[in-house]
Specification:
This protein is mainly α and about 230 residues long. The chain has eight helices and no strands. The chain has one domain: Phosphate transport system protein phou homolog 2, domain 2 (Methane Monooxygenase Hydroxylase, Chain G, domain 1), CATH 1.20.58.220.
Length: about 230
């Protein structure tokens, strides 16, 4: 985001709000990392740490929104700058939702631990999907900082891997519940937890789509991979 604008003050404001977005992204990344640790280790204290930071993420999202509204009202940005500001707003919303998903994972981990069924459930089967989701978010933030459309395209393709992991895990979990009906309730918690991980990947994908929108002016949501690749040529 180093392109110069006619107004150096406008440049400074854009850089400032972009930095805030990256700070929010760092907080969301941290939440995911801790939530996954809580899941794999069945660590209730770490789960509670994730839950305790939700208000900070929500507050930062609101602060960034206020900054964006102020910039738009005062600067009346041109088309490309307006696309950037809109994409920043949408990216901020997705990062806040990533925080929501991490909080959901933490709450479910705590619920599973309190149910007494933690060690009987195949939570480690989620490690691959969780690592993929965390990696995708990190790549999305790096790509956003550089407005890297090639990296954005790679993220869109990699999101399918998380979907495949989720589908495979659901099949395993259904089999697990059929073999031992006593685990149905905590297994359902684990199923919703797996869905939360998949949703983190979806939010990373959304951020990648916003990068393409900023750079190319093309809205590639709900389009095929062939159409996206064509828009980037």
């Amino acid at each position: 985001m180093s392109e110069k604008h006619l107004s150096s003050q406008f440049d400074s404001e854009l850089n400032g709000v972009s930095s805030r977005v990256m700070e929010l992204g760092g907080m969301a990344e941290s939440q995911i990392r801790l939530a996954i640790h809580a899941l794999l280790q069945f660590d209730v204290e770490t789960a509670e740490r994730v839950m305790a930071t939700e208000n900070k993420v929500n507050a930062m999202e609101m602060e960034i929104d206020r900054e964006l509204s102020s910039i738009i009202a005062r600067r009346q940005p041109t088309a490309r700058d307006l696309r950037l500001l809109i994409a920043i707003s949408k990216t901020t919303a997705n990062l806040e939702r990533v925080g929501d998903e991490a909080n959901k994972i933490a709450r479910m981990v705590k619920s599973i631990i309190e149910s007494g069924s933690a060690r009987q459930l195949p939570a480690t089967e989620l490690r691959v999907a969780a690592d993929l989701a965390s990696s995708l978010l990190r790549k999305a933030l790096d790509a956003f900082a550089r407005l890297d459309t090639a990296a954005a395209l790679s993220i869109l393709k990699d999101d399918d891997l998380i979907d495949q992991e989720f589908d495979g895990f659901v099949r395993k979990l259904v089999t697990y519940m059929m073999e031992d009906p006593r685990t149905i309730s905590p297994s359902l918690d684990l199923l919703f937890l797996a869905k939360a991980i998949e949703r983190i990947g979806d939010h990373a994908k959304n951020i990648a789509e916003f990068i393409i929108y900023i750079v190319k002016g093309a809205d590639v949501r709900h389009t095929s991979m062939e159409e996206i690749e064509s828009a980037l040529q």
